[in-house]
# Entry
Amino acid sequence: MSSRRVLVTGGRGFVGRRLVEALQQRGASVLAPPRTGDNELDLQCQGTIERHLREFSPDAVIHLGAMTHLPEVLSKPDLAFDINVMGTWRLIDSVARVCPSTKVILVSTCSVFGSPSSEDLPLKESHPRRSTHPYGVQKIALEDMGERFAADRGLNIVIARPFNHVGPGPNTRFAVGFFAREIARIEAGRGEPLMRVGNLEPRREILHVDDVVAAYISLLEAGSATGVYNIASGESVRIGDALDHLVRNARVCIAIDSDPSLFRPMDAPDLAGDSSRIRQEFGWKPAHVWRETLVEILEDARAREAGVT
# Structure
């Protein structure tokens, strides 16, 4: 890894920052250009992509860059399509023309599966993809493009399909991050001891972001990696149970009010993945327990609320 040159798109985001740090700790030379501004890598502009590929000459590209927040994807469908679908095409096509021997890891999502039956869980890589919203459909396109470029143009492309992952940081777009921030605010006396929440019945995996980063690095280092790999614990947790665990660790009493107006109509009831392939081929497995991960997120939220970080 110490001699690797790795280009990371989306390297300034929640997962990207952890990935860049982990790669640098392993001695890799990492380039994570901003999405806009000086020295940008704009997925809507193929010229900026090709310039970075020529100048940096990476051994590998990890493609995290995307518009991922579903409300934003729904409200800006043309922009989301151009970034998530056409942006991926521009990146892969640029690699094919500028540095065809470069390894590419495309990051997909468990949202490609839509709302599977509970009898089918945990989901294998081969399970039918039936996404129920545009973001998942766009990631299906990413997967298909990756497989076609690998087959037709001989590129070394691996597809990582992570299930829900969280961790310490300011990101409150995901339920547990929002819960932790609200608890920290209430503990600090900056809100009433009442949390209004949406649907608590869906079940999701609660992978630690560092475990997902470790999986990406395993796929990067493995010369034999090919095709699609689920990154999953195989265990889903009811969102209400995750909230209960956080509230039990709160320093004050907090009431919970479920507000139907906050329900999301496209929530899948349950999602859990079978990651046997990456475990058996490369020895990856999650190192964190979801309950401990939630406490870590809560402690980080408290520190941020106190202005420590």
About this structure: Residues 175-200+237-268+297-305 form a domain with the UDP-galactose 4-epimerase; domain 1 fold (CATH 3.90.25.10).
